[in-house]
Write a structure and sequence with these properties.
469 residues, mainly beta, Histone H3 K4-specific methyltransferase SET7/9 N-terminal domain, 4 domains, 19-stranded antiparallel β-sheet
Length: 469
C-alpha cells in the first residue's frame, strides 16, 4: 500500500474511533468528533446531561489512535491528548461565555469573557498563567476594573471604577495578597477609608466622612448570618432527605454552595455528593424553602456573597461530630473572573470511621497517623496540566481497609477535578498494608474517609482546612 494511502487509512480509522462517540462524565455528556481541518486534532463537546444543550467546545490534540470512555481522563493525565487551539465555554442560551487559546494543554495568548447578552466582559493574556493587565468592562464597554497579574498572582495596584467612570477603590497586592496601602473613595472622590495590609492581614485603618473629616471606623466586613443562628441552620439541614442513600456503606461528604444576594435571598449555585442526580429536586426544593438571611455587609453596604456548607453523611444520617467551624476567603471564578467573599460553614468529618460493624480496634497505618500524612505528602505528584492551570482543592477519598490490611474499594467522596481525583486514588491504592481493624479479636473491614489537599506550594493531607470545590 502506498505510504500516503496508508496514512490516510490510519486517519480514517482514528476518525471512526471518535466520531459520534458519547461518554457520560458526571453531569455532562462528552461527544467526540473529528476536527474539520486538522488531522492531528479532534473536537470534544460537552453537553448538559438533562437539557442536551452544549456547554463546552474544545479543540484537542491527540497522539493516540483510540479514545473512549475508559481512557479519556487517563490520556489527558498522561499528556497524550490535550486542549490545543480555540476552546469555548457557553452560556445556557448558546452564546460564548469564555473564549481562550491552548497550546498542547497550556493556556496561551489572548482570552476573553462575555456577558450572556454577548457584550465583552473581560479580556487578558495567558502565558501559562494570567500575566499583565486583566481588563474588566461594563456592558456599555466602559472600564469596570483593572487588575495587574504576574504568573497568575495579583501584583501591583487593582483599580475599581463605578459606572460613571470614577475610581471607587485602589488596592495593592503582592503575590496575590493584599499588601501595603489601599484606599476606598466616596463617589465625590474624597477618601472614605485608608487601609494598610500586611500579606492579607489588616493592620491599621483610618476612616473619613464625605467632607474629609476623620471619623471612627465601622466594621469593614460583617459576615452573613442565618436567622436563629447555627442551631436553626442545623435543623434546616436535617430537613434534607437522604433516604435514597441507605444502601451506601461509606461515609460521604455533602457540600452545597449558595449565593446570598444583597437582600439575603438564597440561590443554589452548586452542590456535590457521590450520588448527585437523586438529590436534584430535593436540593432545589430545600433551597427554595430556606428563610431569608442577613446579607454580608462590606464597608457599610450589603454585598453578594457565597456560603459553602459542608457536612458528612452515613447512609441517610447526618453525622454531627462536633461544632461548626467558620472560615472565609476571597475566591475567584475562573470562568467569569469575578471575585466573591466565600464563607465556609464546615462540620467535622470522620478521618476514620467504622461503617460496617462495631469494632474494638481500629485499623492502623504502619507508623501511625503522622506516618500516613508523610506518606501522602511524599507520594503525591501534582499533575502537570493541573499545576500549569492552577487547579487546586481538597479531594475526599473513601476506602476500606480489609481483613488483610489492604486498602480496597477506593472511591472519591468529594471531587475537585478529574486529574486531582485520579492522583488521589493512585496514592491511596499505592499504600502499604495496614494493621487491620478487629472486633472480638477477629479482623474486620473498616472504612476510612481521607481528605487530601492539593495546593501548588505543597500538596498534603490536611484535617482542618477549607477549600472551594
Amino acid at each position: 500500500m502506498n505510504p500516503k494511502h496508508l496514512f490516510i487509512f490510519l486517519i480514517l480509522i482514528f476518525y471512526t474511533q471518535i466520531i459520534s462517540s458519547q461518554i457520560l462524565t458526571d453531569d455532562k455528556l462528552l461527544k467526540l468528533e473529528p476536527h474539520p481541518t486538522d488531522d492531528g486534532k479532534f473536537i470534544a463537546k460537552f453537553y448538559d446531561k438533562n437539557s442536551r444543550k452544549i456547554k463546552e467546545h474544545w479543540e484537542m490534540w491527540s497522539s493516540v489512535d483510540i479514545i473512549n470512555a475508559n481512557n479519556f481522563n487517563e490520556l489527558i493525565q498522561a499528556g497524550k491528548i490535550a486542549p490545543h487551539g480555540k476552546c469555548y465555554i457557553l452560556h445556557k442560551n448558546g452564546k460564548i461565555m469564555l473564549e481562550e487559546n491552548y497550546e498542547f494543554g497550556i493556556r496561551k495568548g489572548d482570552f476573553s469573557g462575555f456577558y450572556e447578552t454577548g457584550e465583552e466582559r473581560y479580556k487578558g493574556i495567558y502565558d501559562k498563567a494570567i500575566t499583565g493587565k486583566l481588563l474588566h468592562l461594563y456592558k456599555d464597554g466602559s472600564v469596570k476594573k483593572i487588575e495587574i497579574f504576574e504568573n497568575g498572582f495579583k501584583n501591583g495596584k487593582t483599580t475599581n471604577y463605578d459606572n460613571t467612570g470614577k475610581v471607587s477603590s485602589e488596592i495593592n497586592y503582592t503575590n496575590g495578597a493584599k499588601d501595603g496601602q489601599s484606599i476606598i473613595f466616596f463617589s465625590n472622590g474624597i477618601k472614605k477609608r485608608k487601609l494598610k495590609y500586611k500579606m492579607d492581614n489588616l493592620i491599621s485603618e483610618k476612616c473619613y466622612d464625605n467632607s474629609g473629616n476623620k471619623i471612627d471606623c465601622s466594621p469593614l466586613l460583617i459576615e452573613p448570618t442565618f436567622p436563629g443562628g447555627f442551631k436553626l441552620l442545623k435543623s434546616e439541614i436535617e430537613m434534607i432527605n437522604f433516604d435514597f442513600n441507605t444502601e451506601s456503606k461509606d461515609t460521604s461528604i455533602f457540600q452545597i454552595e449558595l449565593i446570598i444576594d444583597t437582600i439575603g435571598n438564597v440561590q443554589l449555585y452548586d452542590y456535590n455528593f457521590h450520588q448527585k442526580d437523586p438529590l436534584l429536586n430535593i436540593i432545589n426544593d430545600w433551597v427554595n424553602n430556606l428563610p431569608t438571611l442577613k446579607p454580608m455587609i462590606f464597608d457599610g453596604l450589603p454585598k453578594k456573597s457565597i456560603i459553602n456548607i459542608i457536612f458528612p453523611i452515613f447512609q441517610n444520617k447526618i453525622l454531627w461530630l462536633g461544632e461548626l467551624t467558620v472560615n472565609n476567603k476571597n475566591t475567584r471564578d475562573n470562568i467569569t473572573q469575578s471575585e466573591s467573599e466565600t464563607f465556609f460553614w464546615e462540620y467535622p468529618y470522620p478521618i476514620a470511621s467504622n461503617l460496617y460493624i462495631k469494632v474494638d480496634k481500629m485499623p492502623k497505618y504502619p507508623g501511625g497517623e503522622k506516618a500516613l500524612i508523610e506518606f501522602i505528602s511524599r507520594s503525591l505528584k501534582y499533575p502537570d496540566f493541573a499545576r500549569i492551570n492552577k487547579i487546586e482543592g481538597k479531594v475526599y477519598v473513601t476506602f476500606v481497609v480489609d481483613t488483610d490490611g489492604v486498602p480496597i474499594n477506593v472511591k472519591i467522596a468529594k471531587s475537585v477535578h478529574s486529574l486531582l481525583d485520579m492522583e488521589a486514588i493512585r496514592v491511596v491504592k499505592s499504600m502499604p498494608k495496614w494493621e487491620p481493624g478487629s472486633s472480638q479479636g477477629k479482623p474486620v473491614c473498616v472504612s476510612y474517609t481521607v481528605p487530601i489537599n492539593f495546593v501548588l506550594r505543597k500538596p498534603s493531607l490536611l484535617q482542618n482546612t477549607n477549600s472551594r470545590f
